[in-house]
Design brief:
Order of helices and strands: HHEEHHHEEHHEEHHEE
Oligomer: single chain
Number of helices: 9
Radius of gyration: 24 Å
Distance between the termini: 19 Å
Low-confidence stretches: 262-279
Strand content: 5-15%
Helix content: 40-55%
Strand order of the largest sheet: 1-2
Number of strands: 8
Length: 279
């Protein structure tokens, strides 16, 4: 993104000011390098973890190096190369990677309006891949030499599915329920609060807080939840059905929920005597 706008290089045509700002291009390079190094570190750590648990789970099911398994009708020999490639494939498809963002999505970054589009696109891609990987791991069988059938990847798939649903759905639900109990906030009060929050928060995960004066406040947890992009359309539909919104409008709301509010769009929403602004 910084490269797209030539950060620190072409912010002005004035030569003197351009020379003054030129050192910022070095800051851009350092920032990119640090971000890439951190990103690579966690990918490498994830690869090592996936490789280790693949081997340990297969060994626990009686499958050892040198054995042959069948996948998609093809015989595959279990060796170190198999574990390396399998772990790499999981990391490549299940962890956000900007190298896999399509050219169309990348082109949207250059528009003068709109939000960050690459990360949500990767969240959608990897979320679907996580579910697909978990399904394949859970239901992939293997027949041992004695004729017994085992599912060598099932434990991994179940853990993957549980971890994803916990992160995407369980944590937001638990936080809302926990804070509601802590501050004695009823479901009716949360529903009433949704009628007065800004438009971009109506279908967010709202964590209620009751102030010392007894008035309700909230934290919009959706803005800190990376997987809100995936679950928001479903939450929008549920909220719409509860509110009795007609089908046509509900469909529009669900589609709109997939498009985040633009950071370049200034909105003011009057809630009582307060003006809530978003830039």
């Amino acid at each position: 993104m910084l490269e797209d706008v030539n950060f620190g290089e072409t912010m002005t045509s004035d030569k003197g000011l351009r020379l003054l700002l030129k050192p910022l291009s070095k800051l851009k390079s350092v920032s990119q390098d640090l971000y890439t190094a951190e990103d690579d570190f966690w990918k490498i750590a994830s690869w090592a973890m996936e490789k280790s648990r693949l081997e340990s789970n297969m060994l626990a099911k009686g499958i050892k190096r040198g054995d042959v398994i069948k996948r998609n009708g093809v015989d595959i020999t279990i060796d170190d190369q198999f574990f390396k490639e399998e772990a790499a494939d999981i990391v490549r498809n299940n962890i956000p990677n900007y190298d896999y963002v399509s050219d169309f999505v990348k082109s949207l970054r250059k528009l003068p309006i709109g939000n960050f589009v690459s990360f949500p696109a990767e969240i959608i891609r990897t979320s679907m891949n996580i579910l697909d990987t978990a399904k394949r791991e859970i239901f992939t069988p293997h027949t041992l030499d004695d004729g017994s059938v085992v599912y060598p990847f099932r434990n991994i798939g179940l853990k993957r599915l549980f971890g994803f649903t916990t992160t995407a759905v369980g944590v937001p639900t638990a936080l809302t329920a926990g804070f509601s109990a802590l501050y004695d906030v009823t479901e009716e009060e949360i529903d009433a609060m949704r009628r007065f929050v800004p438009e971009w928060s109506k279908n967010s995960t709202l964590i209620p807080i009751r102030g010392e004066d007894g008035n309700l406040k909230y934290i919009d947890f959706s803005h800190t939840n990376a997987y809100d992009t995936v679950v928001r359309p479903f939450r929008t539909m549920i909220n719409g059905v509860r509110e009795g919104i007609e089908e046509g409008q509900l469909t529009k709301n669900v589609i709109s929920s997939m498009i985040a509010v633009s950071y370049t769009h200034l909105r003011a929403h009057e809630t009582g005597r307060n003006i809530v602004c978003r830039l």
